[in-house]
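Consortium newsletter contribution from the modelling node. Members have asked for a concrete example of what our holo predictions look like. Here is one, prepared for the zinc ion complex that several groups have been discussing at recent meetings.
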Amino acid sequence: MFQQSVLDSYTSNSQKARVLTENWFASQMYCPCCLKPKISVYNNNKKVSDFFCDSCRNDFQLKSSKNRSGVKF
Ligand SMILES: [Zn+2]
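And here is the predicted structure:
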């Protein structure tokens, strides 16, 4: 579940959407490559990828454009 206190620290809707997506992805997503049910989140100063699987070493990136959202592998 998302915590409202986390969202309250973000002011814009786009930031909220991104935080929601990242929270969901990190908490609910499994690795599509090796099906490991937990993936890790890069810290924000690494811009190349948003997430990685420490099992199979694959990187994942959330696409956050206005017209399309999804995961780029
Ligand atoms: Zn994996």
